[in-house]
Amino acid sequence: MLHHGLEAPQRAGSNHVFTFDIAHWRAWAPGLASVQDWQRWSAAPEVAADGEGAPDVSFLPAMQRRRLSRLARMAFHVAWPLAEGYDRLPFIFVSRHGETPRTFELLTELARGEPLSPTHFSLSVHNAVIGLWSILRGQTCEMAALAAEGDGLEHGLLEACALLAEGAPAVLLVVAEEQPPQAYGQWVNDVPFPYALGLLITPGQRCQLSLGHAPATAPAALPHALSLLQALAGAHPHLHHCWKHRAWNWQLTH
Length: 254
Prior knowledge:
Elements: E1 10-12, E2 15-28, H1 35-43, H2 62-65, H3 70-83, E3 91-94, H4 100-111, H5 118-122, H6 128-137, E4 143-146, H7 152-165, E5 171-177, E6 195-213, H8 224-234, E7 238-243, E8 246-252
Parallel strand pairs: 3-4, 3-5
Antiparallel strand pairs: 1-2, 2-6, 5-6, 6-8, 7-8
Helix pairs in contact: 1-8
C-alpha cells in the first residue's frame, strides 16, 4: 500500500491548501482487486473493467450479506480492512449516484402496482451504506454521506480534513459508484464501470490538495476517484481536476 498526507487549511496565494497523508488505500472493480491489477490498469486506463462480478464480503455473516447491494458490497470490501485496529474511525462515504439501481427497481415495481418492500426502500436512501456500516461495525462516531457532482472525491477529502483538524487520528473515505440502469444511459455517462476506492486519511504532509478558480472546462476523461487511483497505482505525483469553476490540484509523495 502507499503511504502519503491535515493540518488546518492554509492560504497559498488565492488557493486554499490542505495537507494530509494517505496511510493506506484499497480499490475494487470487476476484475480489478489487487494492487497489481490496478497497476496494470493504470498503464492502460482506456481498457474498462468487466461490468459483472461482485466483491468478496465473506467476513460478514450470510444474513447480513444478503441485505447489501453491490454498491454496499464494494464499499464494505475496500473499507473493512482499512478500519481494522480502530475503535472509533469517522467514515465519509461519497457517491454521486448512490443506490440508483435499487431505486430504479423500486420505481419499476411501483409502476407495475406491486407492493414495495420496506427493507428495500430503507436501503435505497443515500446514507444507507453508512447506516449499515454503523450497525455492522458497532460504530457511533462521525459519519457522512455526500453527493457532490463530479468532484465528490475532493469534497469528501475536505470533510476528512476538517475531522482531522478537530482531532480525529484518522478518517476513512470511500468513493463508490455503481453503473446505472440502461434507462439512465443518456443522462448518466460518468461511470465507465462499477468501482470503489477506500482511503485511510491521517495527519501528515505527504499529500497536498489545493483549491483554486478556473474557467469552466469539459469533464475529465476519468472520474476524479479513478484518476486519483491511476496516480496512486502508477506513482504519478501530480493531478489537476477541474469541475465547473473549481480547480483541484493534487501533489502526491509516494
